[in-house]
Amino acid sequence: MELMEAMKQRHSVRSYKACKLDDNVKESLQKKIREINEKSGLHFQLIADEPKAFDSFMAHYGKFSGVTNYIALVGKKGADLEEKCGYYGEELVLYAQQLGLNTCWVAMTYSKVPGTFQVDDGEKLTVVISVGYGETQGVVHKSKPADKVCKTNGEMPEWFKNGVEAALLAPTAMNQQKFLFTLEGKQVAAKAGMGFYTKLDLGIVKYHFEVGAGIENFSWK
Ligand SMILES: Cc1cc2nc3c(=O)[nH]c(=O)nc-3n(C[C@H](O)[C@H](O)[C@H](O)COP(=O)(O)O)c2cc1C
Fold it and tell me: Which of 31, 44, 86, 162 fits as disulfide partner to 212, beta carbons 3.0 to 4.6 Å?
């Protein structure tokens, strides 16, 4: 499955089937996590067969069920940690989709279970991503119109339009879609709006934009 197709098929899934990750699938996911950690310096970790984090009142209130696998997005504290976790976390989410898995970004409705993942000195956990075989494939989210999330001076090139459309397919916290892409010559500026988790969202939508627009067509400002 191409990345563009994976972006269209991905929706948040909060109910999962009670079965373990297939061994090969799990190994592929682990390998991708190692690759991402190597290139980004982040410390993402897969926690498999661990039902406690999503077994609280909060998790059920948040409509999660059957979650036994999740990825902890951990990295060195710093001004760019959230955006980096968003960017590389979404690379992982789309890869999981290509492997036939479903996911959901989770900032709130889970508990930190001691001994499950490692947060070294100077590091921080940002959010987690649940992963597994969904009971359903989720549903398409409501979306803002493109002109509310982008600005151009003059005509909009096709690649820019494709980038914005891809960004609108991305998951954002509470589906807030608080981001703005501005075209300035061959450069694109991406800005996060005000609100919770908007820096994480920015990393996520920048990954989508690159896939949709084609990274060869522009550079980030
Ligand atoms: C940074 C971030 C945090 C999120 N936190 C939660 C959460 O705590 N609980 C939850 O149910 N969904 C959470 N979501 C999922 C969003 O609600 C979901 O992505 C959004 O409604 C769009 O729907 P979609 O993912 O199906 O396209 C989060 C998404 C992001 C990007």
Answer: 162
